[in-house]
Amino acid sequence: MKFSNFPRANIAALPTPIQYLPNLTKKLGGPKIWVKRDDLTGLAFGGNKARKLEYIMAEALEQKADTIVTGAGYHSNWCTQTVAAAKKLGLDIYLVKSAPHEDYESKDWDGNHLLHHLMGAHIKTVRPEKFMETMETTMEQLKKQGKKPYYVPVGGSDPTGASAYMNAVLETTYQANNMGIHFKSLIHATGSGGTQAGLVMGAKAFNTGMQIVGAAVGYTPKEEQMEKVRQIVLDSQKKYDLDFTLRDEDLIVYNEYVGGGYGYMSEAKLEAVKMLAETEGLLIDPVYTATAMACLIDLVRKDTWKKTDNILFLHTGGAVALFPYKEAIKAYVKGEKLPWTIPEWNPAAE
Ligand SMILES: Cc1ncc(COP(=O)(O)O)c(C=O)c1O
Predict the structure, then answer these.
(1) Where is the domain boundary, 127, 156, 185?
(2) Which of 142, 155, 219, 309 is placed for a possible disulfide with 31 were both Cys, Cβ 3.0 to 4.6 Å?
(3) 157 Cα–ligand 1 center, Å
């Protein structure tokens, strides 16, 4: 395995703790539920991207880059953590964010959008159809200005970023062994697919016997999501010389919990946010981790596991997004009808 030869910047707070969730376990009446706190990785408000950025930023620095170019959605957690990493390492950063129209700007600066501005990112908002083209022109313009820009794909979901989650499996297995338990399944939110690819690679390469379950957040249909993850695994096997056979059953994706589409609000997601907050005082985000928790709750209700099983929920961060979603959360808490299901900054809203 060539993995150990690749550069790594120590910018994440690792290892993250694994904690038991007794009240949630009791409420659901099923298997023992634990959480891996990757929301505590540092870099702004923490999250899964800090792990990926350790490897991505190390490559950028090796190539003597002075500017990072990346992008994602308007309230992207990925963008927040990448801006934090860039600033920590003294790099400039340009974000391209997809939005309902070109140069869209929300009335309030809230959640991640507020943080992008606060940390001093250069921001361009465009329609999704113009997203890739704008990233390319931004790269070209920066090169013409004599800068050394480094392009990072959405979510850091390439072999470099995904490899970080292989390490996370090693970390988790070590912790589980020390606690004397075995996790039957790990459930997490899957979007650009790098986290799931890395987790699958780790589970296969280290033969952990831990099933990796991805709850799709609605970027793409289920088959496409699985294909995306598969491709990252195959590319990583080449890059890191990983010797295992990926089987169809290694790629588990549920897409029943997106509730209308990416970033849409649904009763199930809001139930998950509220349930975790009021049973454990644990805050999850309404887009990603709420989808994964809605999936976990439903699978427990369907008696998927035995009471003696240990199930690990991977908290991938993003709770700062609770604030832009406050109207929907308030309505849910008060038992009122949701004021909207698609937020105004979602390109599908127009
Ligand atoms: C909080 C959170 N969880 C999960 C994910 C999904 O991770 P990945 O894009 O690696 O599939 C993201 C992606 O942005 C995220 O922000």
Answers:
(1) 156
(2) 309
(3) 10
Domain boundary among 128, 156, 184: 156
For 30-43, give the DSSP string: SSEEEEEEGGGS-S
- State the Cα–Cα distance between residues 120 and 130, nearest whole angstrom: 23
Q: Kindly report the backbone phi and psi dihedral angles of residue 219, in degrees, each rounded to the nearest multiple of 5, phi listed first.
A: -60, -45
Confidence of residue 1 (pLDDT cuts 50, 70, 90): low
Residue 236 catalytic?
Answer: no
The answer, yes or no, to whether any atom of ligand 1 lies below 6 A from the CB of 225, is no
User: How does pLDDT run across 137-169, given as a tens digit for each residue?
Assistant: 999 999 999 999 999 999 999 999 999 999 999
Both 324 and 186 in a single domain?
yes
Ligand 1, pocket-test mutation among 192, 230, 283, 289, most atoms within 8 A of CB: 192
The reported pTM is 0.98
Indicate which residue's Cα is closest to atom 16 of ligand 1: 77
d(CA 201, CA 167): 9
Does 195 contact ligand 1 (Cβ within 6 A)? yes
Query: Residue 76 sits in a domain of what CATH number?
Result: 3.40.50.1100
Residue 8 near residue 54, CB atoms below 8 Å: yes
Does 291 sit in the ligand 1 pocket, CB within 6 Å?
Answer: no
Q: How many domains, in total, are found in the chain?
A: 2
